[in-house]
Design a protein that fits this description.
Elements: H1 2-21, E1 43-47, E2 52-59, E3 65-70, E4 73-78, E5 82-89, E6 95-101, E7 106-111, E8 116-121, E9 124-129, E10 133-138
Antiparallel strand pairs: 1-2, 1-10, 2-8, 3-4, 5-6, 5-10, 6-7, 8-9
Length: 139
């Protein structure tokens, strides 16, 4: 009788574990809202598959500063000063960005590949990681 109880308990435990694992079915990673940006910027993005997007309300988590590093310094580059950014994936943990400013100057910076950019297109909301972007042109 005890072994039968043990078998039933083991069977129920296995079933419970399997059912918990099924909880992810039907979940999706749909972008159903974006952070409200502190200022409004419109850009054209070209992604790593050479697809372009016209994007309004462009931001990084609602902020209109690009998080980057130059040497050991952490910087926030104001979108208002940027004309164009070209991004180059360098390994798993780094993205090099060549930033062209409206005054004609350029600066090479580095960015974390997982930095998330958000915006609104004519056909829906978008989220795109720095590692998946080839170019950003500010309008």
């Amino acid at each position: 009788m005890r072994s039968r109880n043990h078998i039933c308990i083991a069977f129920l435990a296995v079933c419970a574990v399997m059912l918990m694992g099924m909880g992810g079915f039907g979940d999706s990673d749909v972008v159903n809202k974006i952070p409200k940006p502190d200022r409004t910027f419109s850009v054209r993005i070209i992604d790593s598959e050479n697809v372009s997007y016209d994007v309004d309300e462009f931001s990084v988590d609602g902020l209109t500063y690009a998080p980057a590093s130059v040497g050991k310094a952490e910087v926030g580059i104001d979108f208002a000063n940027i004309k164009q950014v070209k991004l180059y994936r360098e390994g798993e943990n780094d993205v090099r960005a060549d930033v062209g400013f409206k005054d004609g100057s350029h600066q090479q910076v580095h960015m974390a590949p997982g930095v998330q950019f958000y915006g609104r297109t004519s056909w829906g909301l978008m989220r795109l990681a720095a590692k998946d972007i080839r170019e950003i042109d500010f309008k």
